[in-house]
Amino acid sequence: MAKAHILEQVGDGVYDAVAHFAMPTTSNSAGVPWKTCYIASKNGQPITSRLLTTTLQGGNATNDPGKITATEAASIAAADTVELTFHFGFDVASPLSLDQQVLNAANAAIAQFQAAFVQRFAQYGRTQA
């Protein structure tokens, strides 16, 4: 699965983009797997209001830009892969290639999401008798 997909332009030089990363297999401080926290959180929405789905269309990811395979979509639905959206703008003055700029932006968006998520759900599921 591609780490990043650039989608449509939404402003002057700004694009919608999607990043993917594998769900960590570790647990929070309360011993609850991060995957369980993610599924229960529904990204802060009530548990019945959001399904774990992709914003991308299904298709042959190799030959269809902006699409992912059924296997990739199933991985997102199972919360084995996290998909997040972010905005991105190319810096034409940068010495980095456009591809490297996209990768750097995706990595930054993923790191920001993970840091906020870990902080928010560090104690999720802790109980005391």
What does this structure look like?
This protein has helices at 34-41, 70-77, 98-120; strands at 4-11, 14-22, 57-58, 67-68, 81-89. It is an alpha+beta fold. The chain has one domain (4-120). The longest helix has 23 residues, at 98-120.
User: Overall 3D geometry?
Assistant: globular
Task: Count all strands and give the number.
Answer: 5
**Beta-strand percentage range:** 15-25%
Largest β-sheet summary:
3 strands, antiparallel
Structural class by helix and strand composition: alpha+beta
Radius of gyration: 16 Å
Q: Portion of residues in helices?
A: 25-40%
User: How many separate domains?
Assistant: 1
Order of helices and strands: EEHEEHEH
End-to-end separation in angstroms reads 43 Å
DSSP summary: helix tally: 3
Instruction: Give the rounded overall mean pLDDT.
Output: 85
Biggest sheet: strands side by side, in what order?
1-2-5
Instruction: Indicate the low-confidence ranges by residue numbers.
Output: 46-50
Summed up, what is this model?
By secondary structure, the protein is an alpha+beta fold. The chain has helices at residues 34-41, 70-77, 98-120; strands spanning 4-11, 14-22, 57-58, 67-68, 81-89.
Layout of helices and strands:
Elements: E1 4-11, E2 14-22, H1 34-41, E3 57-58, E4 67-68, H2 70-77, E5 81-89, H3 98-120
Parallel strand pairs: 3-4
Antiparallel strand pairs: 1-2, 2-5
Descriptive key words:
129 residues, alpha+beta, three-stranded antiparallel sheet, two-stranded parallel ribbon, 3 helices, 30% helix, 23% strand
